[in-house]
Amino acid sequence: MEEGHFAPGSMLPKVQAAVEFAESGEGRTALITLLQKAKDGVNGTTGTRIIKK
């Protein structure tokens, strides 16, 4: 995010929210994907995952 890879008003708010969620508790993972591809996202074949390390 700090490098400016995400456009404000586009992906940036989604990534910020996903990072905030993932960092808010142990074992939390955020998934960014299209609603139509939610099943594939949960199965790990599409989307962007944000995982707290």
Automatic annotation (TrEMBL):
GO biological process: L-arginine deiminase pathway
GO molecular function: carbamate kinase activity
Keywords: Kinase, Transferase
Entries under SUPFAM superfamilies matching the protein: Carbamate kinase-like
Signal peptide limits: none
Coiled coil spans: none
Protein name listed in UniProt: Carbamate kinase
Organism classification: Bacteria, Bacillati, Bacillota, Clostridia, Eubacteriales
